[in-house]
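Re: the 434-residue chain
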Amino acid sequence: MQMSQLQVVFILLIVAGAAVYHVQDSVFLKMYPVARAQLGHHLGLRSDQVEIDIRNTNDTLAAPHEHLDFDSEVPESINRNNLSSHTQSPDNGTCQPHLNVAFLKVHKCGSSLLSHMFLRFGYENRLLTALPRRKGGSIIGSMGKIGDGSYLNTPGGKRWNIFAHHAMYNRTRFRQLMAADARYVTILREPLQRLQSSFKYFDLGLRFSGLKEKTPRGTPYVTTYLKNATYWDPKYKVPKSLKHREHYCFRNCMARDLGLQEHEYENHTAVQEFVRGIENDFSTVLILEHLPASLVLLKRRMCWTLYNILYTMGVHTRRQRYKREAPITDAMKRAFYKHNYADVMLYTRFNDSFHKQISQEGADFFEEVKHFVQVNHAVMRYCKSGKRKQGKMTVKASRWDEAFSVDQTLCSLYGKKRPYFDKLLRRAYRQKSV
């Protein structure tokens, strides 16, 4: 019996899908340029383009005046008993907010911005948030090992509701320390862009013996590295005495942060099993290149509100030393993708999954994303202006959310860095132990 054209197309799609999920060695290298074209233009962004795009997304959208207004009332003082009202369901209780979340930070993927969002969520909702034993510390554990002495003991030995510090993912240990129904969340970034950002932020070029001398004046160190990564890798030197050595990473760093061991980098079967494990463990994987849409997807998955996912730019990024665009050729890109097979597999899988998920969210998904961007920008302007001293800003109800107010209470937390929340959350520990 002859097959219809539709049936033929359907079978071809299945075969193509299977090929993507079972790529191996040379086959992967042949397919990846095609996958890149399908995944979108973000795989060719400049080293600074992600941050610029996120800011421009906010700056080019005017605040939705029909949804926002300012009250003349004096801002109310903080009322800790009412903070959880921001997480009430907009659909009369049929969807209950999920309060137990482990956010695994991935270096140079915008994770600090989101970490502060989760820490604020934990504080406002009186949740038990994981804290390092050392005050103000940025990491819990070391190189994937979370010992009993690396975190602040919880009141009554309770499990954590929120995790939002740096730590390499260790499935067994997290299952022991997090609440039993915790949902796991992380964020990824296009691998080559992540590397360029890391080179600038951590001055990685100075960690490779001889690389500085081999780099022409005015050329970014990352360009020299990418010309022959396998040559430079053995020349990478980080003193054992260096505090928090795990911050410094140059190969398969996203996979490493999520638990892949270095000896498995060349084992493509192990890499594929690792990626499947992350799929099983993590309920939501955000994509930095699509941050607003990622946050709206998170909001829907967690049954949170727009208030819960508000964020601000600016305090989370270090001033870059230079803004020169790195001259990276196609040959250098191909070599980098081959050398970072694990990160490319991880990003490709979850970027594809992200787009599939939002395609199933309904016709109003991007309308909600646009609304969120407008509200977030308006709140950002309000908190940075003198208007917060004049009264509250009210975000009126929409089809996606109940109304909520913004005043000095939120602005005092909005955009604060990790050490600020560390102090607040340690007080919560003492209060719970009384």
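Residues 365-384 form the longest helix (20 residues).
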